[in-house]
Design a protein that fits this description.
Number of strands: 7
Mean pLDDT: 85
Distance between the termini: 58 Å
CATH topology: Rossmann fold
CATH architecture: 3-Layer(aba) Sandwich
Shape: globular
CATH superfamily: Vaccinia Virus protein VP39
Number of domains: 1
Length: 255
């Protein structure tokens, strides 16, 4: 008979032994965020000392000018952390369609919508790499802290989807936690991701291994430069940007 402690240990061992292919499997990624959904927002804010909120705001401010009455997509939207800033960029007729693969994240996002005064947001649970979004339907595409869970092949697919979905003249902005190049900062930052964040996760949920996965994804992702190249190969105008000495990185541009 397997007792609860054995179940937790088995989950940890299974997570640690995941192959590179399985690590980026959509169902595995969805499961990670389902498990983190109860505490992800608060844990993320505390663990980043508020930097993620600041970087999210900077990313959306970097979004080039667009039709503020149009329709835009928030990819890997989580619990809707980016919506207050996006709503500052659209008017009353503007529409935001939030895309996320996680059932629990979408459930939390629906609760977020209920608390908002402006009801111009629609939720869709879908894998952004395999979607039914109409071509040339978006005036803007935003994503904050969602692309680290994509490998290089998936980033190429995502870049192609950005090109396909954007209207001519449509704009985009993405940001992601990244691995600083400076050796001392890189060393300290990876200890922070691989040790400090899991400890916070354990304090809130009793599950440090799920939060430890964020460090694994970040270390493999490195920064947004590869995605930047993918966007350019798809004939999109893209500008690469580092935030806070490379602790985050992003891209923004136009079709």
């Amino acid at each position: 008979m397997q007792v609860p402690g054995d179940i937790v240990y088995a989950r940890k061992r299974k997570t640690r032994s995941k192959s590179s292919h399985e690590l980026y499997d959509p169902s595995f990624v969805s499961g990670i965020f389902d498990r983190m959904s109860k505490t992800y927002g608060l844990t993320n804010l505390i663990a980043s000392f508020g930097f993620t909120s600041r970087w999210r705001r900077q990313c959306i401010n970097d979004l080039p000018q667009f039709n503020t009455s149009g329709t835009g997509y928030d990819f890997m939207s989580g619990m809707g952390e980016a919506w207050p800033e996006i709503q500052k960029r659209v008017n009353a007729d503007g529409r935001i369609i939030a895309i996320d693969i996680s059932t629990e994240m979408n459930r939390k996002a629906a609760e977020h919508i209920d608390r908002l005064k402006t009801k111009n947001i629609e939720l869709k649970q879908v894998n952004v790499l395999d979607n039914d979004i109409p071509s040339e339907s978006a005036d803007f595409v935003i994503s904050t802290f969602g692309i680290k869970t994509f490998n290089h092949e998936q980033q190429q697919v995502l870049a192609n989807e950005v090109r396909r979905i954007l209207k001519p003249g449509g704009v985009f902005a993405f940001i992601e936690i990244s691995s600083p190049k400076a050796s001392v900062l890189h060393w300290a930052y990876m200890i922070y991701l691989n040790t400090f964040i899991p400890l916070i996760g354990r304090a809130f949920t009793g599950d440090s291994e799920t939060y430890r996965m964020l460090g694994r994804y970040c270390e493999r992702f490195e920064n947004s430069r590869f995605f930047h190249k993918c966007l350019i190969r798809n004939e999109l105008e893209s500008t690469y940007k580092d935030y806070f000495f490379g602790c985050a990185s992003g891209v923004y541009g136009r079709k």
